Amino acid sequence: MSVNYREQDNTGFIEFDQTDSRVNLLTAAALQELDKILDSLAGKSSLKAVVIVSKKKDIFIAGADIREIEGITRPEEGLQKAKAGQDILNKLEDLPVPTIAVIDGVALGGGCELALACQYRLATFNEKVRIGLPEVNLGIFPAFGGTYRLPRLIGLPEGLNMILTGKPADSNKALRLGLVDRLAPQNGLDHYLNTFIEDIRQGRVTPDKYARRKPKGLAAILEGSLPGQWFIFQQSIQSVLKNTKGFYPAPLKAIAVIKKNFYLDRAKGLDVEAR
Question: Active-site residue among 33, 135, 158, 273?
Answer without folding.
Answer: 135
